[in-house]
TrEMBL record:
Organism name: Paenibacillus aquistagni
Entry function: Manganese-dependent repressor that controls a regulon of oxidative stress resistance and iron-storage proteins. May act as a hydrogen peroxide and organic hydroperoxide sensor.
Gene3D superfamilies, per database record: 3.30.1490.190, Winged helix-like DNA-binding domain superfamily/Winged helix DNA-binding domain (1.10.10.10)
Superkingdom to which the source organism belongs: Bacteria
Protein name: Fur family transcriptional regulator, peroxide stress response regulator
InterPro entries on file: FUR, Fur_C, WH-like_DNA-bd_sf, WH_DNA-bd_sf
Location of the protein in the cell: Cytoplasm
Length: 146
């Protein structure tokens, strides 16, 4: 059985993209990581294995993965973009203390784009939703301090 990474690499090869060791490592790191890392976090994690790799290499590969539909870029205000290899329809809960992002889905919202199109006349291309709060770890840490 093929892994998500193998499927993604095949998709890239079919698009004419050469699979370099760095490209493979960046994609595998993103798909294995559920932390929605920044480009800098990816670079720091892979730099020991690829000392000649630059941050620009990471950004260029992320841009290519986004264009190929394998990765989504998450932008939140002024902070660094985060990258998500889960391109299924889902939403994010964001901790206001540590910045952790957790995925969740709400099947009842699957028709929100169609409803928005019908009510506004817009051609809807997508949507996103974030909810903000404090993750369990930060809440427990705060409770233990008091």
């Amino acid at each position: 059985m093929k892994t998500r990474v193998q499927h993604a690499l095949e998709h890239l090869k079919e698009s004419g993209v050469r699979i370099t060791p760095q490209r493979h490592a960046i994609l595998a790191y993103l798909m294995d990581s559920m932390t929605h890392p920044t480009a800098d976090e990816i670079y720091r994690a892979l730099e020991p294995k690829f000392p000649s790799m630059s941050v620009a290499t990471v950004y260029n590969n992320l841009k290519m993965f986004i264009e190929a539909g394998l990765v989504r870029e998450l932008t939140y205000g002024d902070s660094s973009s985060r990258f998500d290899a889960n391109v299924s329809d889902h939403y994010h809960a964001i901790c206001e203390k540590c910045g952790k992002i957790a995925d969740f889905s709400i099947p009842a919202l699957e028709n929100v784009e169609q409803a928005a199109a019908e009510r506004t006349g817009f051609h809807i291309r997508g949507h996103r939703m974030e909810v903000y709060g404090v993750c369990r770890e930060c809440a427990e840490e705060a409770a233990s301090v008091h």
